[in-house]
Amino acid sequence: MGGDCSSRVYNRPVDRIYLDHNATTPVDPRVLEAMLPLLRETFGNASSLHWYGQQARAALDDARGEIARLVGAQPSEIVFTASGTEADNMALRGVAAAARAPRRKVLCSAVEHHAVVNTARALAEEGIPVATVRVSSGGALDLDDLAAKLDEETALVSVMLANNETGVVQPVPEVARLARARGALVHCDAVQAAGKIPVDVRSLDVDTLALSGHKVYAPKGVGVLYVRRGTRMKALLRGGSQERNRRAGTENVAGAVGFARAAALAREELAGEGTRLAALRDRLEQRLLAIPGAIRNGEGSRVPNTSNVSFERIEAESLLLALDLAGVAVSTGAACAAGAVEPSHVLRAMGLPMERVQGSVRFSLGRGTTAEEIERAADAVAAAVGRQRASARAVAARR
Ligand code: PLP
After folding, report:
1. How far apart are CA 98 and CA 113, in angstroms?
2. CA–centroid distance, residue 275 to ligand 1 (Å)
């Protein structure tokens, strides 16, 4: 996809640059087009017996098949949810609820998304034994630490495929090999991996795997949990018998159809888009790391669209605001929650000093990103960093 794609995917002021695709992506117009008939005409409830219901059911079944193809699963192993968060909750809580004592322990990596971290925390509060597996300073899972913490009482190991902040890809097949040897199940949060690198549930050898529509150019409000046939897990929601009793609630058929169209596009465009984004990301890093005191966070295998960089003597939050004024949208490792800046648990788990965590910015590229935007964004970062350091020096000189 070339520069053309930008105008097709985005409907935004031409001078604005969106480099926050790991937060969310715009809905691809081809996805929207696939969804519209389901909202306008064939809007039936997939459980209804009449024509409207039949149309919706057929569309939902087709969508399930397409999502299954994206991850190498059987259609019957795909459960639609309302988000990636719900899929993660469902996997952890569902497996923990079905586990039989003494096999109750849940292990998860220290760099999981809050959807996993906070679910594990809640399980711990409810009396389930939970332990965290360390990562290296480059962000990769410490397999020795995992092996040491795995035992005959471990019910589930949860390790993400690609990290949302650093883009680091975790050795999930090795995690699965270690877990299987101890009889534990494996959950993989592949929300940030799908559409960026190949995701295949059989070669990853996982039992459950979470996906989210809005990270792959489908709308918000639709997610998926792959559940390997025969996996023992309890349903999170109680209600109707939708999704083979695994997830109650009237299905979001238009969302599922949009997700399926997005999955098909991701499959078709994965190779070319991956190469294109990796080249743009490398160019961006070349420019950013030329700024004095800039350092990259995350080493080894990474998804092609993500770059996390810390700038010495810079508060990422003020840099983000300055970049926003310059028309460049990025995100920081430190999120402002309830008025307090909370440092990224991911970068902290990698052992980075607080100053480096607080000066970290995430740039995540996507389908609409162009080479020209990368140059403009890099210019804007260099200028903003320079200005902020100069004003800090001026303040210090006045003291
Ligand atoms: N897992 C990862 C790795 C994510 O990056 C996100 C969203 O940022 C989620 C889970 C949650 O997905 P959703 O926004 O669909 O709830």
Report:
1. 23
2. 24
